Amino acid sequence: MALPSTLNRYLLLLAQEHLEFRLPEIKSLLSLFGGRFSNHQEIHGKSPFWILSIPSEDIARNLMKRTVCAKSIFELWGHGKSPEELYKSLKSYPMEKMAPFLHSDTTYKIKIHTFNKTLTQEEKIKRIDALEFLPFEGKVNLKTPQHIFSILEDYGLDPNHIPEKPLNIYFGRWIADGQRELIESYSVKKRHFIGNTSMDAGLSFIMANHGKVKENDIVFDPFVGTGGLLIPSAHFGAYVCGTDIDYNTVHGLGKASRKNQKWRGPDENIKANLRQYGLEKYYLDVLVSDASKPSWRKGLFFDAIITDPPYGIRESTRKTGSQKEVPKGIEKCPESHIPVSINYHLSDMFVDLLNFAAETLVLGGRLVYWLPVYLPEYTEEIVPRHPCLKLISNCEQRLSSHTARRLVTMEKVKDFEDQDHYSHLLDNQFLPYKGLNSFREKYFSGVTKRIAKEEKSIQE
Ligand SMILES: C[S@@+](CC[C@H](N)C(=O)[O-])C[C@H]1O[C@@H](n2cnc3c(N)ncnc32)[C@H](O)[C@@H]1O
């Protein structure tokens, strides 16, 4: 298909981690920055090389200011399945597009990047020398060049069968790197306040990107825990708030989660975490509150809801309430009632979460959350639906051989009306999936372990 003249081709070099999460991240970010994800993209599933066709270098730069899934982006000057094909394609790249980066008062450097193979220094120099036909008029500067060009060679995905010759070769002008270093700088290992279920930094940034969080947004986490999911949103300039049913977590009290420490110290709380990263000004507040009984007045408050609800594995799924009959008169004076907690079924939790998101998100706002699933029973139909929320993406992260969690992203596409509250009772397609309720038993059941053992012995 011919490329429309309004689009340019860029080569995206992706990290080989969290593969399923990459496409929704790139799509979300492109739509955030006004680069529609047209059908001209050349996305090669698990490959680290994708060719994106987007309208401008500005969009490419904005994308790289946010992505944690991609390492670098290049303006693509040529591509082939052999050196000859690459040179032919380079010769047909418009000279007027190359010239500004090649003229005599510029400095430059050429780098080689290989995937699934290491080249010797000699082989690298050969590759560079073979590009002599390109009209480089500037001076080589290895330390601080104005322009960096890269030859990228792709030797496929199988480390046990590395082909002699590359499967694909690309040449491009480097434009920008992504935000991979955030994974290290925001690592949970170096964070003041953490809990047993604090989310890994890379995945939390991916969640904020799937949520299309942007500057001055208001982002909410109803199951906030230690606030790990608020941090990436604040890093991207959004104001953040949350609730949790656990008083100790919200107040930074109680037992510490680190090995060598018994009790949480004075600076172990969500606000101090944000302070640690210079993001305190984005902290709105966190409250002790039960997500099953939201205490918000009616209104559209949030640009995104990004959350990791409890699945009952490392934290209990509880809500306020009593198993006993409601004592007489309690409805009349609820303030005298001291709530105890009862089990919060996962199926109810997700109905509540979707209803809450549908009610409080702005139109176009996104809900991003994790859904635990038992793999033998999983089909896409069990992912909860809501008439106001459109399913955008649904990516798997394996937890064990038979369990996984899925990162679900939904976008609010319709104003909430009173009857939408009961959609899960009125319409089959919005029925909650009751199988979720036994996730904990299945996770811990001997069945899971036994099947894993059997699978292992079959493989041996
Ligand atoms: C998976 S953890 C969230 C971890 C969090 N993302 C972090 O970075 O620490 C789930 C949290 O939900 C809280 N929770 C459980 N039931 C709740 C309820 N009914 N309402 C609000 N929070 C609840 C738990 O106390 C726990 O802190």
Automatic annotation (TrEMBL):
Coiled coil: none
Database matches in Gene3D superfamilies: Vaccinia Virus protein VP39
Name by which UniProt lists this protein: tRNA (guanine(10)-N(2))-methyltransferase TRMT11
Protein's cellular compartments: Cytoplasm
Known catalytic reactions: guanosine(10) in tRNA + S-adenosyl-L-methionine = N(2)-methylguanosine(10) in tRNA + S-adenosyl-L-homocysteine + H(+)
Entry annotated with the keyword S-adenosyl-L-methionine: yes
PROSITE patterns in alphabetical order: N6_MTASE (PS00092), SAM_MT_TRM11 (PS51627)
Oligomeric form and interacting partners: Part of the heterodimeric TRMT11-TRM112 methyltransferase complex; this complex forms an active tRNA methyltransferase, where TRMT112 acts as an activator of the catalytic subunit TRMT11.
E.C. designation(s): 2.1.1.214
The protein's enzyme class: transferase
